[in-house]
Amino acid sequence: MKEQGEDVISLSVGEPDFNTPENIRKAAFEAMESGKIGYTPASGLVQLKKTICEKLAKDNHLEYDVKNIVVSNGAKHSLFNSLQAICNPGDEVIVGVPYWVSYPNLIEMSDAIPVYVEMKECDGFKFTKTALENALTEKTKAIIINSPNNPTGTVFTKEDLQVIADFAVKNDLYVISDEIYEKLIYEGEHTSIASLGDKIKELTIVVNGMSKCYAMTGWRIGYSASSEKIASIMSNIQSHATSNPNTIAQYASIEGLKGPQDSVETMRKCFEERKNYIVKAINSIDGLSCRNPEGAFYVMVNIQNFTGKHYKEKQINNSFDFSEALLENEKVAVIPGIGFGQDGYIRLSYAASIEMIQKGIERIKKFVDYLN
Ligand code: PLP
């Protein structure tokens, strides 16, 4: 629609609307200029792995050696490698609903089966102990967790994570902990589940990367920290599938993790201002509501009051109908909750300028006022 000249406002994107910080861009340039353009070890530069170990020790109280680290082509690739490394055909992997869209597909690509556990809005979009226990079978191999969460923005507290850790340790399950939004937190703090004890650390594959917190989505650098055994399997898979991730981006990532962190804080503050605006604005629209998310750059908006209503001739039966009618009539792009496994919601991203957000919200209000 945009290409056809339509004035579409997108509140759907999953990437920061900032350029990569200058010191990181410069480091990439310097790497190229000094000829650091060849292959690196398949699982990543030792120098970058050391930097990642320092970061994990400093930020997450986690002691790892370079042998535990695999650097990949983005966090998604680290998730892929993790699942390929641990799953046998028919294994079950527990996923919270709403989930990040790729989890079910990544699980299925490893011949395993996603088992869905609802994380209800009334529980703050978190797992409950009972729901986890009900999902357990003798085939359960792992659980994927994501905090700060996409799409809900929920951040799991230490207590929430302890429940998951106890469940995993008791039943000998791997935990894949996707921490890609780690530094985008507005309330509370980030805890890595692996830091809760030696047993859970051994079972956890920590996944993180440069995309979201350093505005480096296109650079494609992610990493994992796990037991040496799992890291070595992941490294073998990666070696034969893709070889090393982009060398220049690896050098730039060293600067990203080691260099000044003030640009991360500037971006975080900017996201926080937008979040405060969007949450207030949504909750002031009759019939819409959303909880105040603690992290990431998304809000899940409850649209259940509008199920069965009509926009002109069209009946709104689900989140897809709602999103489609909103796009066609008011030119605002959002993601239907059904894409995250949870109908009755739409996801708004506030990785957009405040002007765009304001305009988008005005149009959403107009759309909703028209529904009857
Ligand atoms: N995990 C979550 C929860 C995400 O939202 C995303 C990107 O949208 C990723 C992983 C993938 O990150 P990367 O760009 O590093 O592959």
Automatic annotation (TrEMBL):
Lineage: superkingdom: Bacteria
One Pfam family named in its UniProt record: Aminotran_1_2
Keyword tags: Aminotransferase, Pyridoxal phosphate, Transferase
E.C. number(s) listed in UniProt: 2.6.1.-
Enzyme class: transferase
Keyword Phosphoprotein annotated: no
GO BP term, pick one: amino acid metabolic process
Cofactor: pyridoxal 5'-phosphate
GO molecular function terms attached to this record: pyridoxal phosphate binding; transaminase activity
Family: Belongs to the class-I pyridoxal-phosphate-dependent aminotransferase family.
Record-given protein name: Aminotransferase
Native source organism of the sequence: Lachnotalea glycerini
